[in-house]
Design brief:
two-stranded antiparallel ribbon, 2 helices, 20 strands
Length: about 325
Amino acid sequence: DVSAAPWMGREVVPRGLFSSLDEAYTSLAAATLVADASGLSASPLPQAPLERQEILLQRVRTAPGQGLAEKDLAAIVQHGEADNLNGTRWRDDVRFLLRDGTVYRRSEMPPDQLDVAASRRLEPEQWGRWRSNGTRYEMQDADDPGRPSGWQPVPHRAVKPWPAGTRLEGSFSRASFTGSLVLGGRSSSETFRFLPNGRFERIFSATSSTGTLAATMNNTVISGSSHADGQGSSAVGGGSVGNGPAGGGGGTVGAVSSRRADDGASRRGRYQLGGFVLQLDYDDGHQERLLSFPVDDQRQTVFVGDGSLTRDAKN
C-alpha cells in the first residue's frame, strides 16, 4: 500500500511473512525493506533455475556522447522478420558489434548512450561474442547467468549511419495486430511524418474489439479506438452486452463514450539525423534521442527506436 516510485531503477530486498504462495507470485504480510542485505545468504532448499529479469533501460543508459565510443564500435547489424505468433507484427533484431569481439543485443538506444561497464555488470545475458568470415556473421549468445553458448550463423547485415544533417520527406509507418479474430484483439499503427524543413509529427492509432466468439456466444461486442497526432489526441469506447447466447432472449445494455485531450505539442517538433541518432525536439520542450539508420539505400525503410518503418505508398 505504498508508492514504488522512489525505488524506480533500484534493487530492493523485501522482508516479510509468507501469507500465500503459488507458481506465479507470493504475498508477504508485514513487509518492510531490508536496508543492508549484505548479511543475507541464499536458501539451502532446492530451487528452480533463476531467471534474470530485464532491467530498466535507464540503468544502462548514460548521457549523450558518454557511452560506447565510436572507435570501439565495429558495426551495427540488423535483421527483421515477420512474427505471426498470437497476431501479426514485424520484429527487428539489432546488435552492436564491438571491436573487442563482443556483441550487445539490447540496442534500444544510440550506441553513444550505452554505459558498457554498467551493462556488462547488470545484464550479462545481453552480451555475447561475434566473428565474421567476410561474407556472414556468427554469434555466440549467453544465458541468464552470462554463460556462452555455441557459435551460430545469423542472417544479420551491417547498416550505414545517417550522413549529418540528413532530411527526409514523407510518412513512414509500422503496424501490428495482437490477438485473434475469434477471441478478440488489438491493432495499432505508428507513423513518423518528416518534412524537408526539419519538422516532424508522430501519429498513433489503435483499435481493439471483442472477437467473434464473444459476439456469438454472449451477444457481447466491446470496442474502442484511440488516435493521437500533432493536433491532439482522442479516444472512443463503446459496446453492447446481451443476455445469454445469441437468440437466447433477454435485453442488451449499450454504452458509448469519447474524450479528447491536449494540443499535440508532445508529438510534433523539429528533428535532426546524423550518425545512428534521430534527435527529436518536441514543441512541449522535451527531447528524445532514438537509435536510427536507413535500412535500405533507397530509404524506403528506416529504423527508428525499436523497429523498422516503411514509407507509405502514397508518398
